[in-house]
Amino acid sequence: MDFETLCIHGHKRRYDEVGAVVTPIFASATFSHPGLPQEAEFEYSRLKNPTREHLELTVAALEGGKHALAFSSGLAATSVFMELFSPGDHIVSSDDLYGGSHRLFTSISQKNGVNFTFADSAEKIISAITPNTKAVFIETPSNPMMQVVDIAAVAKETKKRGLILIVDNTFMTPYFQRPFDLGADVVLHSATKYMSGHHDVLAGVLVVNDDDLNERLRIISKTTGAVLSPFDSYLAIRGIKTLPLRMERHQESTKALAQWLKSRAEIKSVYYIGFEDHPGYEITTRQSNGFGGILSFTLHSEDVAKKLLAGLKIIKFAPSLGGVESLMTYPMLQTHGDIPEEERLARGIDPSLLRLAVGLESANDLIEDIRQALEG
Fold it and tell me: For the domain bounded by 3-240, which CATH number is listed?
């Protein structure tokens, strides 16, 4: 089944006998048993729910994976993954990554005895692996500096050493990038973003191929309990139906915005993986079939950045990304506000940096909105 058809119809399994075209919302928290000794397939929604299962099966199929687990947020999914590890274990991670992931690793996982090394390229990630390393965590392209890591190069080493490779595929989605094809063991999504696509649901998903790893994660999931609700599962299923159309439009408009921003005197730098002079362009063209809908850019001063944010009329000054509405984010205080200032500045996250998640509005209107905010 082609990707576009799978997005609309989802996994082949159906859960009702009345011919509903749309997957029903099974709001029941508990399910009755047929009697002993028979076991019920569905018992309690923290363990398994038909609506959530449909989402999980669909996302697993889209990613080319075997199993998926859906959670109440992307960070809930990441937190469950981190429960695989014990005190003394070591993880190598991308150093430019979502601020919430960084906060989880440094304020909670490290408190629990898990050690981290952060690196910004495949070569540095590989060289940071030690005998105590148990996993490698990659976010590519990264948030907010749009760094690209060669997934296949890292996977070659993690396979050789028996390590778990997890790839955060939130920015690209399986429409543009399929980490399993490149050797990943786990794929992570903040499904709040492009997978759901409408800024109206919080969701996270882990996708795996290994049966044993799937069982370990499910035990942690049912024990910690941060699973996705039936209604939020329904919203995510609904969003996925238009994923291919949305991703194409996001990409088309982002390319236009990136080229226009690069031409403006007020803009110092534009970080967009679709530019041929981007350091990760060649890797991107090998491991992805698109460039996504996110870019970041710096202005020549903090004052100009603040003027731009204050003058926007269509683009919303807000955190998050991946929905139909365009959002501009101030990473220094929003997504990455909890990272120590010295670390932020070293990674280029300074007071003049803005991140733009391009929505589905007219690209011409978005350009005009930024123009009037800069010149007003």
Answer: 3.40.640.10
